Amino acid sequence: MKTLHVELGDRRYPIHIGSGLLGRPELLCPPIPGRQVLVVSNTTVAPLYLERTRAALTGLRHEAVILPDGEQHKTLVVLNEVFTALLRHRFDRNCTIVALGGGVVGDMAGFAAACYQRGVHFIQIPTTLLAQVDSSVGGKTAVNHPLGKNMIGAFYQPRCVLADTDTLATLPDRELSAGLAEVIKYGLIRDLPFLEWLEANLDALLAREASALSEAIERSCRNKAEIVAADERETGERALLNLGHTFGHAIETGAGYGVWLHGEAVAVGMALAADLSARLGWLSEEQVGRILALLERARLPLTPPPDLTADDFSRLMAVDKKVQDGRLRLILLRGLGQGVIADGVDPVRLRETLEARR
Description:
Number of strands: 12
Oligomer: single chain
Largest sheet: 7 strands, mixed
Structural class: alpha/beta
CATH class of the largest domain: Alpha Beta
Helix content: 40-55%
């Protein structure tokens, strides 16, 4: 097991990464201050890992709520099922919510924890690669709205993240690739040696070699933990983590939640960001080629849905958390490993990218 920490003063918390962690009460129980625990999972993950998780909650009163699986269910209506369970079982403000699942479960359970009785304790047990390397770390929680992804939420940090790499054995290939998009992102925005490592080890990751997966998760989490510690509420550097996300969220919203996986949409978004960066003179054709080749090797899409027009993109991207005072902020690249926050991007070049990449 490897343990990293997100350094947030008195809210410092560990990220445990390794094999066979799920059933270890000595890891799961110490961050739980009270006696009441609600495990939030979904219909796909619960049959696989819920009983093992509950068995580790030794000496605690634990209940569970099982949500429907899929991004299309990440709504206020479904979130209310968590609040109903908390109230039905008379959980108090010293209770703990445990998120057992992928990014959707983690986002919803975390948002419920932020809201219930104005804030209760929260633990992340991510079971997908995307959640283990990204969404479980850093305290972003949210639900979707028909007009925009993740537009209703809160910054709310967990007390612990428990990433059991054994859960990746049951992950579908498509979900594994979606998680690799977020892994590649870290190399592109700030960690060129990691990007080069990914180019050399991508086949091992796709083959689910345990040592390669553990290394990728650790290096991704280390990058994110450093950024979150420096900029918890995304007033500066943390925005770099959104490389590809403004484009990607437009794809997810425009196509309908659940049609595209988040990592797939982000991969296309990173391809678009690379194209736009090149049009601005910041990347060479060779560098763009390296980015596209790595994404393609990871079995990720490179082009948006053909029925999503440039006008559709513009409309959907205008409803995004990165818009400030009516100006669209994009995360672009001034080189490999050099993400930048770009305000007021030339609209002509942006239009060229949106029309060309299809």
